[in-house]
Amino acid sequence: MKAIRRFTVRPVLPEPLRPLSDLARNLRWSWHAETRDLFQSVDPECWAASGNDPVRLLGSVSPARLAELAEDSRFLRRLTAVAGDLDDYVGGDRWYQDQPDELPAAIAYFSPEFGITAALPQYSGGLGILAGDHLKAASDLGVPLIGVGLLYRHGYFRQTLSRDGWQQEHYPVLDPNELPLALLKEPDGTPAQVLLALPGGRSLHARIWLAQVGRVPLLMLDSDVEENDLGERGVTDRLYGGGSEHRLLQEMLLGIGGVRAVRTYCRLSGHPAPEVFHTNEGHAGFLGLERIAELCAEGLDFDSALEAVRAGTVFTTHTPVPAGIDRFDRELVAHHFGPAAELPTIEVERILQLGMETYPGGEPNLFNMAVMGLRLGQRANGVSLLHGNVSREMFSGLWPGFDPDEVPITSVTNGVHAPTWVAPEVFRLGARQIGGRRTEDAMTVGGSDRWDSVGNIPDQDIWELRRVLREQLVMEVRQRLRTSWRQRGAGTAELGWIDGVLDPDVLTIGFARRVPSYKRLTLMLRDRDRLMDLLLHPERPVQIVVAGKAHPADDGGKRLIQELVRFADDPRVRHRIVFLPDYGMAMAQKLYPGCDIWLNNPLRPLEACGTSGMKAALNGCLNLSVLDGWWDEWFQPDFGWAIPTADGTGTDPDHRDAIEAAALYDLLEQRITPRFYERGPDGLPDRWIEMVRQILTLLGPKVLAGRMVREYVERLYTPAALAHRAMTPDAARELAGWKARVRSAWPGVTVDHVETSAATSTAVLGSTLSLRVRVGLGDLGPDDVEVQAVSGRVDPEDRIADASTVPLKPVSGPDAEGRWVYEGPLSLDRTGPYGYTVRILPAHRLLASSAELGLVAVPSEGAAEGAGVLMR
């Protein structure tokens, strides 16, 4: 019989056990081993059955067992110690509190998904896991972050396979009362809510759930409330589900509702108001509109409010392809704003101007969330050095007249939260070497360039650790594979072969990620005979564990999964290659440590960063990857292999796959498997062990989320906070007025004449030339501009590369024609073909970049006299 109503019955903990409730409600348990060990000791069987979720555990343990523990003095001492440790962690000073006073009082961090723990399934892939690691690292460092997201009642889908290997999606309903969440309430006990106005006089209500991530509060908005009609209740039903209007409403709730939720939380909790707002990808971009509306309500005009909002906003882009950005039809956006809908005090046309693709190559009828993010954020970044380059090229149309390398988008390379992803066995090995506290500090705060203490760990210990982790993975794979085959309809009698799947002494390769086509899940199948030879080699076999989900609407991705599954089902190789459905955090935490090689073969440069290989590396797993994302930045042959790419513009995609697959097989056959199976005089694979040692020593400190968050604090959050403080209402009005005046006057800004002291087309290294430039500034003055000499090596088309700039100074003017003369030196500090030009840029103390307005004036064809290319 089916129940007509469902509710949660909570246990009443005996008084001595009350701290267990606080420990369960703070998600620090998800990365704190002592807390997890404590919960496991409550009832090991219930702990396993709960999926290692303390909230579910406490809801299932028997009253008799709780009464027994309440009398157990040893357990109570452990409970007191762990609870005290959490109090110290939450309330004590950490890295951030030891920094200068200029740091932000608080930062609001918005993301459409957060991967904190498998017990809170609110993530689909890398973006969410990165956001979760960002919050955890901020907590470890003491950074006063407030996370903001949505609570999806179905989360992302659960994945199973049909008998013929086709992906099937399931959407279990999540009850917030069974999750590690608390409802944010007003002083009178009623649930706190935010409200959005919808077209046609309708409203969208949302409650605010609070997840405590160590020191960091995470606010999650939930539209499944009684005040909403059925359609509005479903706004937060599924992560990345529904059509355009559904997604637009989700993003309005995340951005606009999220700011309102932050204001409500700060009012109720006393948390400092954020000085900086960080939008993780464009989904939350509407937060800037809500903040503009707030300032307009306080008396600022739109343009001044825009400048004030931009000063304190950081925008991070995560996609290297335009197709990965949310774009909405102009009319759909216009329908949801204005007098009869949300933000009625702001002209709809002003809102549309922020997101329209009004640049060469753009689609002028589409509203682009990333474009709005860049226009609303004074500071922006990609997530690896290579992705920063790709982003500057991709968005260069927003800064016409500037070379891509001058586009004001920097990069902060992603990192991963080591306490979440490092296996306990790896942590214990480090703790034996340098102590538990130092190991914890090294993995959270970071700060060192190398982990040299790894060099003192004996080879035997490293190799034994690797085998233990591989053996654990083998057991995990067999259990998951058996579950998967039962879901596919197999009977127990058919599954005896699973006991022989994988071998703890065989070289193990892992490949797990989302399954869009560019990640090339099936590149390994390109030459099946060659792959079979690798899998079944009599002396040097390999085994491969594969996992991943395709988007529910991506039939192409599902076909790739089916192709892989059908190959793995072949009785000849099924003991050597497996596909595990329902890839998520719980699986990943076993998979990364147990692999010897982490494989990544995307189409370069379409992987913005790719952090799975970082998590594997922290466990001593070597990377085998295309030079893309973070691997392009930090690859060294000391600790991994680079798959050569055939990424020339003229290369046929099929031919490219063939070339790169052949390179992958060559590496495995000729370099990787021989090194793994080669034994030194002591019977150990000493050259392999040395690579494991090097990846931990050299790469470990780089890939930490602690390093990443410290970079955000130092390079983006603190400058944004200082700009926010400088942007008083009067300063905002001044800057907005100045920008309007400069834009209006810019057509009258010209470089009229350039001359130099160079008499010939060659010059001597180290010499200095004199530049003299006559410019027209129209209605502007020297305080409004900077006149620059730009010089550097030139290519055959006379394009300047690796340019350096030198400001020139006014020496006279204005003359009768309103012209000014600027002069300055030009040092010839490089040999070879060398050239220069002159340009004029807007200049103001409150600009974060001289390219901010996208305005530049350069010489016309006839303006130079003996200028230009100095040496060929």
UniProtKB/TrEMBL annotation:
<dbReference type="InterPro" id="IPR052182">
    <property type="entry name" value="Glycogen/Maltodextrin_Phosph"/>
</dbReference>
<dbReference type="Pfam" id="PF00343">
    <property type="entry name" value="Phosphorylase"/>
</dbReference>
<feature type="domain" description="DUF3417">
    <location>
        <begin position="13"/>
        <end position="120"/>
    </location>
</feature>
<dbReference type="GO" id="GO:0005975">
    <property type="term" value="P:carbohydrate metabolic process"/>
</dbReference>
<dbReference type="GO" id="GO:0008184">
    <property type="term" value="F:glycogen phosphorylase activity"/>
</dbReference>
<keyword id="KW-0808">Transferase</keyword>
<feature type="modified residue" description="N6-(pyridoxal phosphate)lysine">
    <location>
        <position position="615"/>
    </location>
</feature>
<dbReference type="InterPro" id="IPR035090">
    <property type="entry name" value="Pyridoxal_P_attach_site"/>
</dbReference>
<dbReference type="InterPro" id="IPR011834">
    <property type="entry name" value="Agluc_phsphrylas"/>
</dbReference>
<dbReference type="GO" id="GO:0030170">
    <property type="term" value="F:pyridoxal phosphate binding"/>
</dbReference>
<dbReference type="InterPro" id="IPR000811">
    <property type="entry name" value="Glyco_trans_35"/>
</dbReference>
<dbReference type="InterPro" id="IPR024517">
    <property type="entry name" value="Glycogen_phosphorylase_DUF3417"/>
</dbReference>
<keyword id="KW-0663">Pyridoxal phosphate</keyword>
<keyword id="KW-0328">Glycosyltransferase</keyword>
<dbReference type="Pfam" id="PF11897">
    <property type="entry name" value="DUF3417"/>
</dbReference>
<keyword id="KW-0119">Carbohydrate metabolism</keyword>
<comment type="function">
    <text>Phosphorylase is an important allosteric enzyme in carbohydrate metabolism. Enzymes from different sources differ in their regulatory mechanisms and in their natural substrates. However, all known phosphorylases share catalytic and structural properties.</text>
</comment>
<keyword id="KW-0021">Allosteric enzyme</keyword>
<comment type="similarity">
    <text>Belongs to the glycogen phosphorylase family.</text>
</comment>
<protein>
    <recommendedName>
        <fullName>glycogen phosphorylase</fullName>
        <ecNumber>2.4.1.1</ecNumber>
    </recommendedName>
</protein>
